[in-house]
Design brief:
heterodimer; A: about 850 residues; mainly alpha; Four Helix Bundle (Hemerythrin (Met), subunit A); 4 strands; disordered N terminus; B: about 400 residues; alpha+beta; Immunoglobulin-like; 4 domains; 6-stranded mixed beta sheet; 5-stranded mixed beta sheet; 10 helices; 15 strands; about 35% helix; elongated; electron transport (chain A); oxidoreductase (chain A); respiratory chain (chain A); transmembrane helix (chain A); heme binding (chain A)
Chain lengths: ~850, ~400
Amino acid sequence: MSQAANAPDVPPASTRDQEDPKVREEQEERLRKVWASPPGWRYWSDTNNTTVGVWYTATSFAFMLFAGVLALMVRTQLSVPENDFLTADLYNQAYTLHGTVMMFLFAVPIFEAVSIILLPQLLGARDLPFPRLSAFGFWCFLIGGIFVCGSIFFGQAPTSGWFMYPPLTTQERFTPGYGADIWLLGLSFIEVASIAAAVELIVGVLKCRPPGMRLNLMPLYAWYILVVATMILFAFPPLIAGDILFELERLFNWPFFDPERGGDPLLWQHLFWIFGHPEVYIIFLPSIALLAMIIPTFAQRPILGYSWIVLAAVGTGFISFGLWVHHMYTTGLPTISLGFFSAASEAVAIPTGVQIFVFLATCLTGRIIYSVPMLFISGALAIFVLGGLTGVMVAIVPFDWQVHDTYFIVAHLHYVIIGGVLFPLVAGLYYYWPILSDRRLSDRLGKIAFWLMIVGFNVGFFPMHYSGMIGMPRRIWTYPANLGLELPNLISTVGAFIFAAGILIIVFDVLRPRGKEPLAKRNIWNAGTLEWVADVPGEDWGIRSVPIVSSRYPIWDQPNFIDDIDKGRFYMPDAEEMKRETMVTSVLDAQPLQCLRGPGPSFVPMCAAFFLGASFIAATFHYWTAMFAALLFCVVTIIHWLWNATSVIPEKEEKDVGRGLSLPIYIAGPHSVSWWAMFITMLGDATAFVGLVFGYIYFFTIHTDFPPPDADGPGLLWPLVSLAFFAASWLLTLVSHRLLRRGRVSAARLLMAAGAATSVAAAAALLWGPWVTDLQPTVHVYPATVWLLAIWTAIHALVGTVMLGYCLARSLAGKLTPKYDIDLANVALYWHFAAGTGLVTVAVIALFPLAN
Amino acid sequence: MRIALADPPMTAILALTRVPGFTGPIEEGQSSGMAGGPIRQGGQHRVSRGTSCSVRLGRSFKASPPLLLATLVLISGCRGPQSTFADAGLEASSVAALFWWMLGGAVLIWFFVIGLSVYATKAHPGAHSDKTGLRLIIWGGCVFPTVVLTILLVFGLQMMPDFRAPANGPRIAISGERFWWRVFYDSPAEPGVARSLPHEGIESANEIWLPVGRRTELLLGSPDVIHSFWVPAIAGKTDTIPGRINRLVVEPTREGLYNGVCAEFCGTAHAQMAFRVRVVSQEDYETYVAAQGQPAAVLDHPGLDAFLANGCGACHTVRGTEADGRVGPDLTHVASRETIGAGILAMNEANLARFISSTEHVKPGVQMPSFGVLPDEEIAAIAAWLGSLQ
C-alpha cells in the first residue's frame, strides 16, 4: 500500500515509554487511522470485522423480519377453516420461503454474523485472519438472500417445503417454473458463504488467541464457535453434494432420484438430513454459547463446570451426526436401524441436559442480578425445556409415526428454535448492545417486549401440539370445518400476532433515535471476559494492545488488566508501518508466532461475490453463456485478489511487537494461517466428495444390478492412466516445493510447469474413459454417477493446474521465492487432497464394475 | 354426531364443571356431512380406552361457560374421526397411552427444572457450595436423563415388533397419486424395492374398508412423488415412495368411519388429498369387496352418453362401459363412497355436479380440468348417472 511509503519512521515498540501520554497519543492516532472505515461511498469497501459483522447481523435480522411477515400470512390463512386469504400456490410459496429463510438466511448466518463481531473481541485480537474473506461471505449472503427472497414477488418462489423432497422437486412436470432452481442455486451460493465463514472462524479460534490463552482458558463462546464451525465444515458439504445431484437431475435429466432409471428418492433424504440434523445443533449451540457468556456475568461468578460444558458441547456435536434418520422414521426403514437412531436421538438429550444444569448450577452458586438479558434467558429456558421434552417424545419411533409431519412437530420445532435460538439471541442483543452502539437498549421496552413475546409465543404455538394430535398435518393451506381444528388454529393465529408485536417493539427499540441519551458505562454489567475491555465510545482498532491472558475471566482475576491494555503495556501497542496487524499464536498453548498483516478495505471481495452470484443466477435461468462468462470474471477477480493481497513479501523479516519480543511477519507451512485455511477448506471439500461417493455406494447396496450387467463402465485403462497422471502431478508438486526451498529456483519452475501439464492430462484421461465407453448419463443412474465422480475429480485436477500456473507466475514475478514460499506450500497441501480424490475416484469407478 | 350423556368422559366433565341447566344431549354442529364422526354400530363402543383425553382436559378447567365451551370444542376434536385419540386401532390406542405417560413425565420434569431455576435465582448466595453445584450437574444433567431416557427407549422399542407383526387378514394395495388414493383389494403386491405397485386386484379409490379385529396388510406405493398414508385413529403413518413398496399392518379395533390424509407435502393440492376408512365386520367387508368387483350398476342412462361423449373415459374407468382410462379414480362404484374429490366433498349429486363444473376452484392444483363449459343439463345428467353408481 502507498501509505507504507509515507509512514513516519517510528522507533520499535519495545523502546517506547508507554507511561508517556504523548507517546500513547501518537500511537492511538496511528491505530485509529489504520483501522478507520473508509469515508463516503468507499465505506462499503470496508473489511474490518466490526463493520462487516454489523452489516451481516443487520441483514440476517432483516431476513428474519421478512420471513416473520410470511409466517403471519400463513397464520392468517389458517385462522379459520376453508379460508381464501391466500391461494394454495401462494400459501405453499409463503410457508416454504418462511422455513427456508429462517433456516438458511437467519439461523445459520446470524451465528456467523455475531461471531464475526464478537470473536476478535473475545480473543483480544485486532481482526480475524482473513478479513476480506468475511466481506466476501457477507456479499455472497446478501446477493443470494435477496435473490431467494425476491422470488416470491414474481410468484416464482419454491413451493415444496424447506427440505425439497424429490421427485416432487426434481421433475419439471411436478414443479414447473424456477422455484426449485432458485432454492437450489440460491442456497448453494449461500452455503459457500457459510463454509467460508466456518474456515475463517476455526482459524480465528485456533490461531488468533492472545498470548497465554491456552485452549482450556478460552471463553466458552470460542469453544462453541470451534465446535459449530467444525460441524458446518462436515455438515454442509453433504448438502452441497445433494444439491449437485439435485440440480443435475432438474437441469440435465440425470436420474439420481428417478426410480424408473435406477435412482432413489431416499438418497436425497439421507444427504439432506446428514446435513439437516447437525444443522439443528449448528443453530442451537451458538445461542447456548451466548447464555454461557451472559449467565456468569449476572451470577457474578465464573461458570461452574467449565470442563463439563465444553465436553457436552463437543459431545453434542459428535452425536448430532448420528441421528439424521429420525427425520425418516416413516420411510419404511428396517426396525433395527430405527432402533439405533432412536437410541442416538435420545442420547443427544444427555449433553443438552448437562449444558442446562451447568447454567442452573452457576445460578445456584452465584449472586443473581436481575436484568432484561436474564429475563429473556429465563424465557428461553422455559420454552426450550418444553421443546426438548417433546423432542424426547418424538425420538420414540411409534410416537413419531403418529405425529411426524403434523402440527405437533411444527410446535416442537418452534419451541426448540425460538426457545433455543431466538430468545437467547434477544438476550444477547440486550447484553451486547452497549459494546456495539455505546448506549443501552431500554429496560422498559425490553420488559414489554419480553412479556408480549413469551405470552404470544405460547398462545401461538402451544395449541399446535393439540392440533397435531387431533390430526392436522403440516403444510396444508386449508382444512375442513368440524374436525375440532377451528379453535386451536384461531388461538394460534392470535398468539402469532401478539408475538410479532413483541418483536416489533424490539425493532423499534433498536432503531429509535437516541441522540441525547448518555453513553453507557464501560463494562456496564461488570463482566469478566475480554470483550468488555472495549472502551465507550468504542474504537475501530479492536483492542488497544494485545494482552497476556492467564485466566478465563481476566477482567475479574488479573489485577490492573484494563489499565495495562489501555496504556499499551502489552503487545502491539502501535501501528508503526501504518498496516493492519494482528497477532498469530500457536494452536494449543497460544505462544506468539507471528505478527500477521491483514489487507485493508477493498471492493475486490464485493466484485468477486457479485460475479459468483451472477453465475449462479444465470444458471438458474439456463443462461449458460452468461454463467460461464460470470464464472470466468469471478476467477479472474479472485486471482487478482490473491495476487495483490496475499503472501505479500514484507519489507523486513521481523518486527518488534513490544515487551522485548520480536515476531516474524511472514511464515509459511503448518504455522501459518493460510496453510490452516487450506487444510480446513480441503476437509470440507473432501467431505462433499465423500457425499458423492456415498451416492455411488448407496446405489450399489440397494440395487442388486448396480452397475447394471449390460453397462460397460469406464473401463480399466483410462482411469488407471489418469491415476498415473494424478500421481505424477502430486510428486512433481512436492518435489518442486522441496527444490524451491533449497534454492533451485529454475528446476522448481520447470517441475511446476510439468505438474500443470500432467494434471491437465489427468483430467483429460479421467473424462476420456466414460466418453469412449459411451456412458449416457441420462439413461440410467449408473452412468450418471460415474460421470459425476469423473467430472468432480477432473475439476480438481484442473484447479490444481491453475494453482501450479499461479505459483509459476508468482515465481517469475519474484513474489514466490525460496524464503517466501506460502503459495507453493499451500498448493502442495492442496495436491495431497487432490491426489487422494483421484485415487478414490479411480478405485470406485474402475474397480466396482469388476465386483459384478 | 351426538354424544350421549351416558358417555363416561362427558359425564365426568359435566360433573366436574357443574354448570346448572346444562342437561340433555349435546349437539355438535353440522358434523353429519363430510367430516362425520365415527359411526358406532351395535352399541359395542369400548370406552375403557381413549377416555383419558377427555377426562384430563376436563379436570384442567374450572367452571366457567367460555371455558366449558372451549373444553367441549377440544373434546369434540379429541374424539373426532381424524384424531390420534379416537381409539380405533391397536397401534393408535397403544401410542395414545404412551403419550399420556410421556406427557405426565414431561410435566413433572418441566416443573422440576423450572422450579429449580427459580430457586437457583432466589437462593441466598453462599448457601450452596461449588461441590453441590457440580453434584447437581452430574445427577441432574447426566444420571437422571440417562436413566429416564433408557426406560423410555426400552418401552418405545418393545412396542415396535407388535405393530409390525405379520398380518392375518386381507392384503390391500394403496397407491398415493397426485392428489388421490388408488386402492386394490386382494392385491398380489410384495414389499421391497420395486418399480411400481402392480395394478391387480379389485380396484377402488379414496375409500378403504377394513375388517374389525383383523390384522390387515397395507402395501403402499406411488407412481409419481412421495406421499404419506395416515389414518390417525387407527395407526401411525407410512410414506408412499416411488420405487418402493412399503408395508403397514393395521389392526382396527372399533367399527366406524374415520378420516385419512396425505401427510407428506406432494404439491398444490396436498391439503385436499384425503380419504375415508370404514371399519366393518368381517362379513360386511367380504360383501363390500365382492360388490366392488362387480361392473357398474346402471348402464343405460343419458349421463353415461354424456360421460363418454365428453371424453371422461380417457382418464376414468367405469367397468361395464367403454370408459377404461387409468389416469384418474375408478368410478365404477363411485356412489357407494362417502366422499368425492379425495375426501373433500360429501357424496351427493349437487357436489358431483359442482366438482365436474368447477374442479379447479373446488380443489386447486387438481389434475382434472374443469368442465364448466359444458351445458348445465349435461353436467346434471353426468352427475345423476354417477350418483346412481352404487
